[in-house]
Fold:
Amino acid sequence: MQAETLSIEYKSIQKIRSGDKGFKDLAVTCVSLANAQGGKIFIGFDDKKKLPPENQTIEAEEINNAVTKLRSLCFNVALVGSEILTYKNGGQYFTIDVSPSMKSIATTADGRIYLRIADKCEPVRNEDIHRLAYEKQAYQWELICPKTVKISDIDPNNIRNFANDIRKSDRVGEHIKQMTDEEIIENYNFVSGEYLTFLGILWIGNAMQRSRIAYPITVQYIVYDHLERKIRKEDWHDNLLNPAQLLLDIELKAIELTYFHEFPDGLFRKQIRHYHPKVIRELLLNAFAHKSFTISGDIMIVVYTDRIEISNPGGLPIGVSPTNILHARQRRNPHFIRVMHDLKLMEGEGSGYDLIYELNAMDSKELPQIISDFNITTVIQTSKIVNEEVLPVLDYVTQNYDISQKNLIALGLIAQHKKLSSIELDGLLQLVDNKRQRNYTDKLVDLGILVTRGIKKGNAFLVSPKVIANSKANMKTSLKTIEPHRLIALIEEDLRLHPNSMRREIHSRLPDVDEKDLKKYLYEMVKKRKINFEGGKTYRSYRLNRDV
Structure:
């Protein structure tokens, strides 16, 4: 059974048998789906087991009454109920197809507005209503049929080539591979009747046909030198290429993105690209896939000596922000994304930034910075390797341990920073629930790759000294990872030489020590009466307790 997604929801049969409360909940789901890209509600599935109860029976009259009742509770929502269906365990269920509200905003009968974000139904805030009205055109752009280009107007080679590329992919089922060429383009929503949709024109149309749609993908590639003087420019404004061809052509001509760092690695020289090729591809594909095709504007690829900035027309979809993009599952152009995925050009839904985070973490690079407003989204990726010393450690772990993508992301971040508190790691991983952090760190701790210090919110993660030793990494000794009892001894020695020192003065002499750790152990030493203090919080000074 398929999991709940942006367009699929499962509900218990009790929703239509428990009176108004259940129907109001279903109405919220219907409105949410209509305001996104439409979807299907499976009714009759147990909430816990996600299966219809065995021998569950449903009357046809129940289905008709349920659809009629829901129509009265939703405005601007088109609903169609199915016949009675039987699951393989013998339990009966039915479905309700919810069409996307193409030009109007769907509401519940009491005027409330909801939107489907990932697999949740979320209320739309007042400030987002205008944005939702604007976004609705972008959501449905792919399926609009301008009735200007007929299938007979398309070069048969374009249809044949696309169908053959789909058949070669291991991401599509056999039933799709066995379809005719015409059935394949219909399956991917390229046609509506005898005419092509905007999506179809974009993929299998010619340059003239693409130039007439609003708005095709156009790209500028600009390179600046160290003084930020423009030294090279490429552009793709002729609409000669479909999205897949355009992507490959950009990668071919963007030679500045293939430069690399080189540094000693034993008897050899190790090379690490300024930008991992998979990171570049994912960033480009995200710009393509989340471009607002209702806005006139180019995708901009701007290359500086230390960073790349990729911008696309349109802000982030509602429900997605720079602080949740790693986990958000909201799509602007789902049918376009499906094509790119099935052609093996991009990762699965919502997994692109997972890959970007993993590759950056394992190359000791900074995570991408995302800036978004109503009209444009920009991603900034720097080229610098933050900490070269940890690269042998990361190589050693990947070669000797079988760990997940989440483990790799956490390991790379912790190694790069040498030590991260649980709270700091949550911030980098965009986690709001500390329990989810366990998916990233528990296995690393169990395998002895990471060690922990402290408890609860004071917990911190470090790479195990044994792993560092086994990797033969030439890492500089840092006071940041010093053990607590040694740090306390160091503070005592500092105060012995410099009595009556304020915390900032101590920190200036021990700059590698984490300031939070210094504060924590000063308070602990005061509590145990190892040291005394004078003054208020701002100008407090410390000295050794001579009586101890």
Observations:
- Residues 20-35 form the longest helix (16 residues).
